[in-house]
Amino acid sequence: MEKSRLPSSILSRAARFAGIAALAATMAVGSTLSAMAQRVPVVRDAEIEALVREYAAPILGAAGLGRSKVDIVLVNDRAFNAFVAGRRIFINTGALMTAETPNEIIGVIAHEAGHIAGGHQERLRDQLARAQTMAIVAALLGAGALAAGAATDSSGLGQAGAGIIAGGSEMARRSLMGYQRSEETTADRSAATYLNATKQSAQGMLTTFKRFQSALSLAGTRVDPYQISHPMPRERIANLETVAKQSPYFGQKDSPALQERHNMIRVKIAAYTQGQSDASRLMQKFPGTLAARYGDAQVTYLYGNLASALQKADALVKANPSNPYFHELRGDILMKANRAPQAVEAYSNAVRYDKANSGILPIQLGQAYLAMGSKDSLEKAVAQIRKGLDRDRENPSGYRYLAQAYGQLGQIPDAELATADGYYYAGAYNDAKIFAMRAQQKLKPGSPGWVRAQDIINYKAPRKK
């Protein structure tokens, strides 16, 4: 797993409304995924991404989104949460680790697909503009009353003006929250429809809402239902339960093989993000399984002895020779042990068996070739990393390794252009322009590299919200 580090009112009281306008920031994404990584901590992992996309594919098809590119993005956050921005569904690693079944995550994806298919983000922008107008009008009216109160030396009129400002902002906020709650309910209903169309159960959605309700109860939290953007969990359960239980697929269970894969990514997430103890506690829930053995190998690699970790990875590969992620784990262990030639073999097998055609695995293979250092291996590193970037062009780390390989080969213009691309996809546009200009000075005018450098130089970054 790789974490990208690659993310004026008239009166001051009217500034209280800025909290509503700030909601728009969750919907405004730049042109690249890595630019978004500046606001949220994005995690890249070939295995987890492949499985979650597999969960999503039937749902997106049922939602009419199968032919439109919808990306699934992993966020390094322990909270059980997911959200939509543009044509991207962001899912927290905490949600994946907490969900005990694939069906729970599939329900989450179905809900978020409902938001995209329903065009809720576009309509929310309209609501934000409407709410802003309401608050501004209230501020103007309040300002007028305050001015009149000051001119007539009337404290009552002045207090009324302040009340108009505060009341107008509150009314605008409540109106927006009410609109968001209605859209959440609509997305829940759409999710149930998609699940039914794909012959899957809505039980996972109900489990999720019951988890939220239990968390509120345990926290002893008293929530004003009119002050939140989502319906209360009890209300959502009531709205969904009847529809869900009427489906002939309500009792449908995830296949044992899919459940095993789900448990495997859960222990991987726990090992990488929460530590050895949490991963061990999770593995105790399914002792003796392939997922537990995989988790044990991951934990040993991260926190234990590399020789022992390699033995455990070898056993996994022997039992499941076509699993690309067991070969990937072997490669990771061998790279950490400074055994790059053997890592090349392991990563090559990972690429060979990867049916999902991830761009991450060829880049890892390229890193192993890069570590070998010979001219031949550096040329192979360039070929593999470029192969990975062709599949996953918004991967800043890939460009960084590509720049290293070009640099060691003495191909400086290409190295500088790769560095520019890395900065560009990381959202560091000023640095990207600097390296693009340096590269362009050495590249043949009109060549593909020269044109790409010009594109970066001419790029205008979106305004920050």
Automatic annotation (TrEMBL):
GO terms for cellular component: membrane. One of its GO terms (biological process) is proteolysis involved in protein catabolic process. Residues 45-242 form the Peptidase M48 domain. It holds the Pfam family Peptidase_M48. Its cofactor is Zn(2+). The keyword Metal-binding applies. The keyword Protease applies. Keywords: Hydrolase, Metal-binding, Metalloprotease, Protease, Zinc. InterPro entries: Mito/Outer_Membr_Metalloprot (IPR051156), Peptidase_M48 (IPR001915), TPR-like_helical_dom_sf (IPR011990). GO terms for molecular function: metal ion binding; metalloendopeptidase activity. The lineage of its organism: Bacteria, Pseudomonadati, Pseudomonadota, Alphaproteobacteria, Hyphomicrobiales. This is M48 family metallopeptidase.
